[in-house]
Amino acid sequence: MSARHFLSLKDCTPAELVSLIRRGMELKDLRDRGVLFEPLKNRVLGMIFEKASTRTRLSFEAGMIQLGGQAIFLSPRDTQLGRGEPIGDAAIVMSRMLDAVMIRTFAHSTLTEFAANSRVPVINGLSDDLHPCQLLADMQTFQEHRGSIKGKTVVWIGDGNNMCNSYIEAALQFDFQLRVACPEGYEPNAALLAEAGDRVRVLRDPREAVEGAHLVSTDVWASMGQEDEIAERKSLFAPYQVTRALLDSAAPEVLFLHCLPAHRGEEISMDLLDDPRSAAWDQAENRLHAQKALLEFLVEPAYHHA
């Protein structure tokens, strides 16, 4: 039996994605009411971290525990992967012992190669290309605060990075219009842009981009691995700082999201996360609930094996 993987939003149908968001909200409600729900008892998630993490590790580890299972944290220092064991070999062995694997890595090919050799579900906890789990949380947050995102106008401001690429996939899967405001040379993936066609517009002027927008999102200007470019990026991206005044150009009911960590005074003004239009804290918490829905969806419950 070949496992279902979640390396990209394209790995699910639009209907599946919508039901995952709805399920995330249900699981959140169960937790808020203190209801014990443990469908993944005795299930084990292996978590491979080649990149540092706060929210991804906490949300997957806590999520597995809350669903009755366990999570094992693996850094390259602790495994043979850091010493050159072929990814395919590691996948074959690990997937014989685990019920699912989450990988947070640099090259997206690490994920695809691991998944090709794994008999259990593989989840993309972030790669240089995509960050689909964050988009589940973002979509759940919008749904909770504003209802359906279908047909709405969404704006990405700043670097055309993995988050921006996942927003393009989300535009296609959740059926919204996306505007990307970025400096020249920092556009998102060209193949994704071509695939998205007129659903995505790339603009240079953030003010023009946020005109009438329902959702505005941004990210740090230099991602992990780009530390040597920080000075150059700071001057280039300075006009792309998201401020309260910039949000004033958007629709009155605009929602602001940031996947965190945030660098106040850089990609956002010092006070933006305190603005009532910002839902970044709910968004961060929703990583837990959306990923629990994803784990429940991908990992067979223990009682199937009785």
Summarize, please.
This protein has 306 residues and is of the alpha/beta class. It has helices at residues 14-32, 55-66, 87-97, 108-116, 132-146, 162-174, 190-196, 206-210, 230-237, 244-247, 280-298, and strands at 44-49, 70-74, 100-104, 122-126, 153-157, 177-181, 200-203, 215-218, 255-258.
Mean pLDDT: 95
Number of helical elements: 11
Structural class: alpha/beta
Strand count, sense and barrel status of the largest sheet are:
5 strands, parallel
Helix-strand topology string: HEHEHEHEHEHEHEHEHHEH
**Range of helix content:** 25-40%
- First and last CA, distance: 18 Å
Strand order of the largest sheet: 7-6-5-8-9
Which parts are unreliable, with pLDDT below 50 for 5 consecutive residues or more? Answer: none
What percent strand? 5-15%
The 3D shape can be described as globular
Radius of gyration: 19 Å
- Total number of beta strands: 9
Describe this structure in words.
Carbamoyl phosphate binds at residues 53-56, 80, 104, 131-134, 259-260, 287. Keywords: Cytoplasm, Transferase. It is found in: Cytoplasm. This is Ornithine carbamoyltransferase. By secondary structure, the protein is an alpha/beta fold. The protein has helices at 14-32, 55-66, 87-97, 108-116, 132-146, 162-174, 190-196, 206-210, 230-237, 244-247, 280-298; strands at 44-49, 70-74, 100-104, 122-126, 153-157, 177-181, 200-203, 215-218, 255-258. The strands form 2 sheets. It has a 5-stranded parallel β-sheet with strand order 7-6-5-8-9. Strands 2-1-3-4 form a 4-stranded parallel β-sheet, with helices on both faces. The longest helix has 19 residues, at 14-32. The protein is globular, with a radius of gyration of 19 Å. The mean pLDDT is 95.
